[in-house]
Amino acid sequence: MKTSSEPVAEHVQAFLAERTRQTWARDTDLFATGGLSSMFAMELVVHLESTFDIVIAGPDLALDNFRTVDAMTALVLRLREAER
């Protein structure tokens, strides 16, 4: 059974809003717009791992997986599926 992307995306958006004090569209490039730094990317990794009980390692640590809410959502869903 596949997990819906909506709850994951909503959680990621809420976390970003809380930490950056602004809202982000799901397809906004968070790094290109200057919204996030590479240091914050590491905080995102830790947060996603602990919240969604996944391990992000190796090639999955590529910045492209964290550029948008949609990219992070896809990463979480793919890793959750792989662990089943």
UniProtKB/TrEMBL annotation:
Gene3D superfamilies, alphabetized: ACP-like
InterPro entries in UniProt: ACP-like_sf, PP-bd_ACP
Domain Carrier: 2-80
PROSITE patterns registered for this protein in UniProt: CARRIER
Protein name (database record): Acyl-carrier protein
Native organism: Streptomyces spiroverticillatus
Gene: ttmD
